[in-house]
């Protein structure tokens, strides 16, 4: 938790932004087509840097993967993997999305 707070300070995010992104991503949807967070559409072209979108919880989690210790990364991966697998079965892949984008940005919003 201390590393997540340090990450919030490093990027000047609000307090507990990273922790709330993890909770929002891992929480199961409350109803049909509810993602648990406001989903934003991302441009499909290749010059968009998805890491700049701190509103997307999965992008925040991906940034945290690169900034925390190995032990914390393992624990975070253990939390996030079931949510990733669940959402990959629910979301429809976008065939027009650029292939270099992460999987969660190569999906349709519906």
Report on the structure:
This protein has helices spanning 2-10, 17-26, 57-67, 70-90. It is mainly α and 110 residues long. Helix 2 (17-26) packs across helix 3. The model is unreliable at 42-47 (pLDDT under 50).
Strand content: under 5%
Structural class: mainly alpha
Low-confidence stretches: 42-47
- Please provide the count of β strands: 0
Mean pLDDT: 78
Alpha plus pi helix count: 4
**Radius of gyration over alpha carbons?**
14 Å
Order of helices and strands: HHHH
Distance between the termini: 33 Å
Give the key terms.
mainly alpha, 4 helices, 110 residues, single chain
Draw up the topology in text:
Layout: H1 2-10, H2 17-26, H3 57-67, H4 70-90
Helix pairs in contact: 2-3
Summarize the structure.
The chain is built from 4 helices and no strands.
């Amino acid at each position: 938790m201390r590393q997540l707070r340090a990450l919030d300070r490093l990027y000047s995010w609000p307090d507990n932004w990273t922790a709330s992104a993890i909770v929002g991503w891992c929480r199961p949807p409350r109803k049909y087509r509810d993602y648990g967070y406001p989903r934003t559409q991302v441009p499909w072209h290749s010059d968009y840097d998805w890491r700049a979108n701190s509103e997307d919880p999965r992008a925040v989690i991906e940034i945290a993967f690169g900034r925390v210790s190995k032990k914390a990364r393992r624990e975070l991966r253990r939390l996030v993997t079931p949510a990733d697998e669940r959402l990959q079965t629910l979301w429809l892949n976008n065939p027009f999305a650029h292939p270099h984008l992460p999987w969660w940005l190569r999906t349709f919003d519906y």
